[in-house]
Amino acid sequence: MKYYVTSDIHGYFSELKSALAEKGFFSETSEHKLIICGDLFDRGSEAQKLQEFILSLIEKDEVILIRGNHEDLLVQLLNDWNQHSYNAQHHISNMTVDTVLQLTRCSKSDLLINADAVKIKMLHSPCIRKIIPSMLNYYETEHYIFVHGWIPSSQIRI
Q1: Running DSSP on this structure, what letter comes out for residue 27?
Q2: Cα dihedral across residues 103, 115, 96, 3: positive or negative
Q3: Each residue's pLDDT tens digit, 98-148
Q4: CB neighbours of residue 37 within 10 Å
């Protein structure tokens, strides 16, 4: 198995696709997978294209997704939506709100007029229904452990 590894794509699909093409990912004929170590979205303007690409890789079993802090931010944003989390500065500055707008094809006006409709669209998006649920906290091979920045663990108290 050949692995291609990246992280922190942050919605920059064109750059990801270009780098993968340069390294031979798309022309690879042997069994291969792309490991993405978290932070798929937030920042770039190509969330829709990236989502479609990730879905195609999931369908072909060519990707291993590891959860990053920006996936946690997205879940937190949605969980706190009723408290108007979409107005919280950290969700705006991290561009998590922008990711929601991109993936739902909604505008800032839509968010102001009917925030609940935007949330419902996001909850039904492939990102929430398929991508995030398929994410792992880490992935381990014989010689390597792939993480975003940490491995969750429980402290054992005696």
Answers
A1: T
A2: negative
A3: 999 999 999 999 999 999 999 999 999 999 999 999 999 999 999 999 999
A4: 20
Residue with tokens 């989502």: 51
* Token pair 């922190």: residue: 8
Distance CA 45, CA 104 (A): 13
Amino acid (1-letter code) at residue 146: F
Q: Quick one: tokens of 143?
A: 């010689």
Torsion, Cα 34 38 41 43, to 10 degrees, reads: -110
**How far is 100 from 95, CA to CA, in rounded Å?**
9
And the tokens for 27?
């022309």
* Long-range contacts from 118-126, C-beta under 8 angstroms, 24+ separation: 118/86, 119/78, 119/81, 122/78, 123/78, 125/51, 126/51, 126/55
- Classified as helix, coil or strand, 140 is strand
DSSP assignment letter at 86 = G
